[in-house]
Amino acid sequence: MAGPLRLRSTIAVAAVVVIVAAGLSVFFLTRGAEEAPALPKLGSASGAAKAGVLAVPLGRFGFDLLLKEAAASEDNVVISPASLHAALSMLLNGAREETAAELRRTLQVDDIDQAVLNQAWADLITAAQASKKTKLQIADSLWLRNGVEFKQDFLDLNRDYFAAELGGLADDPAAAAREINAWIEERTHGKIPKLFDSIDPLTLLTLVNTVYLKVSWEHFDPELTAPAPFTLTSGERVEADTMHAHLDAAVSLQQAFDAVLLPTDGPVDVWVIVPKGTETPESVASALRDQGTAGLYAQAVESKGDVALPKLSLEYEAKQLRPALQALGMRRAWSPDDAQLEGIADVKPLFVQGIRHKATLDMNEEGVEAAAATGIEVGTTGMPVDTFSINADRPFLVVLAESTSRVPLFMSLVRDPR
Questions:
Q1: For the chain, which domains are there?
Q2: 70, 164, 229, 370: which could join 158 in a potential S-S bond, CB 3.0 to 4.6 Å?
Q3: DSSP string spanning 246-289?
Q4: Residues of the chain where predicted confidence (pLDDT) is lower than 70
């Protein structure tokens, strides 16, 4: 776990990467990063509410993946379902037949038409950047190898709905990585300075998505922060620096858990969910899975009360997400013989080689800061209450959601806040 970071009242969500590789190369336009991310050609600045069609699918996908990762790790887990979902949604624009069907099941969008899915992302990306008060930016880019003829429909869909900028892959593997890393670092305002060491010579396309968010809050007085007991999963009691607040907030006090929504000065809600009795974060996540974040909002009522929340400085890295995503339904995409990605280019075979995901989450009295990076490599052979008191003094869940669409941006299962 990394040491505590000095925060500047921010939440930062960053970088998803999809790599597509093959034994051919391609020529295409190179374009540098701009000061502000491009906007989707077909997005709407008032479309955040319509983008709410993503809330339930992303909630299910996020809780499913959080539980898979938690089962494989004894540490704190932090993931960005929005980052992974956006990247895989863009990849879905190039998937066909059973491979596309499996991706749709994994992403929990079986009942959403592809055009509606693309439009929802376009509206969310556009609406995210509409606020002048705070900074919320979602950016995409396609990095293309000289000589490969990409399908125009694939390029157009990702440019029109995801505002994907176009860049050229340098022939030198290290130079290509440096250029993409520089773009990511700029788009994430320094939160993700390096994602790649090198780009494989067989890579024909690197698809990059970044999300950056900066907000603050004023709930917690630093003078009230003090060490307080925290009970680990093992039953051991330790001391954790804990923040305290008395505030008006939306709460959901259920038989299995207590949850409080901590608003920020921007379009992000922070849900803190503390299990009750013999319940665990895993059992609560399973119970919340079907309705996702929508269930939290539906059960919430306004009240006045107290919150005790440990300061957090968490890091999580999953170098191989293949077993988790296979268990969620994404199977054919990993196979050189079975993957159907011909919607990207007429190159055989194209298949997913591996996925890496890294995320950080920091909370203090001034705000929250979070970052994520995901790499997907595709290659070839060649109830009402009067008051409340919520004390996160045992393992708990944290969910960061976009406040209008209620799309979950980040999820964390906190086992040890130290």
A1: 16-215+313-379 (3.30.497.10), 222-310+385-414 (2.30.39.10)
A2: 164
A3: EEEEEEEE-SSEEEEEEE-SSSEEEEEEEE-TT--HHHHHHHHT
A4: 1-36, 131-134, 319-320, 356, 375, 377-386
